[in-house]
Amino acid sequence: xxxxxxxxxxxxxxxxxxxxxxxxxxxxxxxxxxxxxxxxxxxxxxxxxxxxxxxxxxxxxxxxxxxxxxxxxxxxxxxxxxxxxxxxxxxxxxxxxxxxxxxxxxxxxxxxxxxxxxxxxxxxxxxxxxxxxxxxxxxxxxxxxxxxxxxxxxxxxxxxxxxxxxxxxxxxxxxxxxxxxxxxxxxxxxxxxxxxxxxxxxxxxxxxxxxxxxxxxxxxxxxxxxxxxxxxxxxxxxxxxxxxxxxxxxxxxxxxxxxxxxxxxxxxxxxxxxxxxxxxxxxxxxxxxxxxxxxxxxxxxxxxxxxxxxxxxxxxxxxxxxxxxxxxxxxxxxxxxxxxxxxxxxxxxxxxxxxxxxxxxxxxxxxxxxxxxxxxxxxxxxxxxxxxxxxxxxxxxxxxxxxxxxxxxxxxxxxxxxxxxxxxxxxxxxxxxxxxxxxxxxxxxxxxxxxxxxxxxxxxxxxxxxxxxxxxxxxxxxxxxxxxxxxxxxxxxxxxxxxxxxxxxxxxxxxxxxxxxxxxxxxxxxxxxxxxxxxxxxxxxxxxxxxxxxxxxxxxxxxxxxxxxxxxxxxxxxxxxxxxxxxxxxxxxxxxxxxxxxxxxxxxxxxxxxxxxxxxxxxxxxxxxxxxxxxxxxxxxxxxxxxxxxxxxxxxxxxxxxxxxxxxxxxxxxxxxxxxxxxxxxxxxxxxxxxxxxxxxxxxxxxxxxxxxxxx
Length: 712
Ligand SMILES: [Zn+2]
Prior knowledge:
17 helices; globular; seven-stranded mixed β-sheet; Collagenase (Catalytic Domain); alpha+beta; eight-stranded antiparallel barrel; Immunoglobulin-like; 4 domains; single chain; disordered N terminus; binds zinc ion
């Protein structure tokens, strides 16, 4: 028996209250819905009553649900124990009291109930709320939990809020950006005809969902040296900024959120990302407190091709939507189209994808249609999540993004492959082709999406799992299937591309490390497959087989110890993270002690990337300048073939990217000869691997252009 419940013995069941009085009782009574808190000995109950009342208390619409969280005092701290939900509560609206009864289902966070706990459904909740008038002092509600038919816990609970969750929100911004402004629903042209006029801002948007946001006013404006409005930010820089400027930040789950209004995301201008949620701000995968912060990119939104040309009220609306949307991710809400609800009019949908989700007809843009119908709300399932799901699934710093107890990733059956209606084919492969990976070598795969139909198809322009457009699954040598979860989640403005008939889209995906740590630590055979899309058109790739070799020497075993740490994982994932001193040091040691390995080349790649770029360190309030000479040295080692190998340690796309950067650095250092021979060698190598002719032609053209420059 769960010791929380072994309490005062009591006899019998609850009598079922009659509903006769309820039909006539319509006197003025205090609002009932909201949050109640009470204690009993070393236990604490936070109860949420969400009822249809004659006079609804708040700006939100009720769901007719009761839920609660239970805590136990341990060493002076409240330790979270479990959550429960009551569906279809029976409510007796009496003249002197309101009695609510219902069957509790336990919401044990992410864990199946241990044997013997299937009886959780036998728990019955009874809440008695005395009715009082505004002149009378409030009286506490009595909350009784009947367990196993015999035991009863009783809590006396005070109503502490009209809302169901209370969250403190801190917003900071980078110089040159603006905070979102409130806008009036009548100020936008495209809206539902019957939408009432009201002013909407982040706080109001969440209050309408039953969540009380307290905005902290100590807004900081950062002006990193050399910062301009076209300043771009990597996830790491943003994360670093949050850790040091989020004054309420603590390394634990708490009802606190951080929003940074930044300039551009680092993919700018190739990709116009308007917002991002930090999926893993912790460096320790065994102790993760994700979803505490989000950023939106003001300078990107201000671009003419994004929303810069819109009337100001419409810009304000889109800006606000982006903020509410990103904070929704931080509260563990997925995109509507990832929940098979592409026609949802929710904050969590993409307007341009409405109502088709992944299944967009060619040339479709649903933005206007979305706004014509949108009432600035979360959908019902999302409201249920925000208000009543198990504590850790919602609270920032709780469960990992997308990890929901009722919705754990399941392996996709192969038969789904035949369900695809779009003329698309998806492949997971290794390029250059290989089966064997060295022990501790980072695994990357290439994704290829091909239009094998006769007509162009609109597809998202990025295939990486960070964009949420496809999922990758990994079956480990023990047969366990895991969803690969990237460290970060990106949200962008309509980034689609038209894929002509017969054309392909490629991406290189780093799979070695993610939100769940290292995925390929054990030697043995793995299978990797991808699933693209959601809803009716789900497309499954082939299953790629690879093998991770056993360590050859005791030294290689040791190499794993140096490599498989969260900081090191982070550096490899981010292709460099200059502020993670310890992780960088350990990897430096690996590269020096095991210089012939593929892993060493990958480490040089990461160091090369990070030294080639400046790092905006908000802690020190300065920008660490790029170090091009050091970057050149690192990148030269990264693209060099390991001894006796006929191919690069890097996959083709990553190799090509490193060559591009190295070429650029050579040019800046005024070394045209080296730039040219690098390109010529790469052309030779890629020709041997039968890389796409257009890639080779582009490299060759660039090499030729250098010759022209010299002859002058
Ligand atoms: Zn999003």
